[in-house]
Write a structure and sequence with these properties.
about 300 residues; alpha/beta; Cobalt-precorrin-4 Transmethylase, domain 1; Methyltransferase, Cobalt-precorrin-4 Transmethylase, Domain 2; 2 domains; 12 strands
Length: about 300
């Protein structure tokens, strides 16, 4: 990247927190946010010197998968509060004069607690800033977008949500694995492998049904447990499964196998987050439909290439 993101020091966090007195939640504040989000644009709000927050989905990594609206807002924001999963290529499109605030969350390493992120958005908006809350994938699919919107509504901050290509759709498409198919999958289920409690307690009986595709977000750390539970609840050991790392980018890597073999293959390939797990018979179609092979993938599929 051309610019190094600024470090948001503790003093700045404390100032932001002090600037956010809590107000009573209710229909009045929520209605105000909804009405303004639907009726106002950035230019109108700027003319009245009021702040605004945009919760924007940055997609799975490829900047060309941004929506036109997201790309436009990247160029109009005063401040960009961005997550760990937002790619450098997307960040490079943010207006150069905008302030960058890193709010990424990695396993056991949160740059800012969620409470501070919420407070910062409110404080900046109350200063009249156009705040771009930039989130990987789609804000409403395991992105805490709903929680953040609730907080903004509670504090009377006008906002708008811009959907993005969710990671499941991007990863499966670029891996050549259709999420639905008339012959193999008539339903698709998205779940997270990392719950708020830190456990991986899911509805395994529902997930182990045939005729559907299951996409597990944030599950690489529990991949062995996930595959084991799916087998224990009825799926055969040879049920197709795949893991997709850094989907839609030149560093994308895909490992395919079965519920029995995938954990070992993913470990051998040293796959790391961000990555998704895809389980279902549609995985069998990758050999026929895979169209986005990268050099990184070739080294997995054909290990001998590393010594050529």
């Amino acid at each position: 990247m051309a610019r190094k993101p600024e470090t948001f020091v503790t003093a700045a966090i404390e100032r932001a927190q002090r600037a956010v007195p809590r107000v009573k939640a209710g229909a009045e504040g929520q209605g105000r946010s909804r009405r303004r989000g639907a009726a106002d644009d950035a230019e109108g709000l700027a003319a009245r010197k009021e702040g605004f927050v945009y919760l924007v989905g940055a997609g799975p990594g490829d900047p060309e998968l941004l929506t036109l609206k997201a790309a436009r807002l990247l160029q109009r924001a005063d401040v960009c509060v961005y997550d760990h999963l937002v790619s450098n290529d997307v960040l490079a499109l943010v207006r150069r004069s905008a302030e960058l605030i890193y709010a990424g969350k990695e396993k056991s390493n949160h740059a800012l607690p969620q409470e501070d992120i919420n407070a910062i958005m409110v404080a900046l908006a109350r200063k009249g800033k156009r705040v771009l809350r930039l989130k990987g994938g789609d804000p409403f699919i395991f992105g805490r977008g709903g929680e953040e919107m609730q907080f903004l509504a509670e504090h009377g901050i006008p906002f708008e949500v811009v959907p993005g290509v969710t990671s499941a759709s991007g990863a499966s498409t670029y891996a050549g694995i259709p999420l639905t198919h008339r012959d193999y999958a008539q339903a698709c289920v998205f779940v997270t492998g990392h719950l708020k409690s830190g456990s991986c307690e899911l509805d395994w009986e529902m997930l182990a049904r045939r005729g559907q595709t299951v996409v597990i977000y944030m599950g690489m750390g529990q991949i062995e447990e996930i595959c084991g539970e799916l087998k224990a609840h009825g799926l055969p050991g040879d049920w197709p499964a795949a893991a997709v790392e850094r989907a839609t980018t030149p560093k994308q890597r895909v490992v395919t196998g079965t519920l029995t073999t995938l954990p070992g293959r993913a470990a051998h390939a040293a796959l790391k987050p961000p990555a998704l797990i895809i389980v279902g018979e549609v995985v069998k179609l990758r050999g026929e439909l895979g169209w986005f092979d990268t050099d990184a993938e070739q080294l997995i599929t054909h290990p001998e290439a590393a010594h050529a």
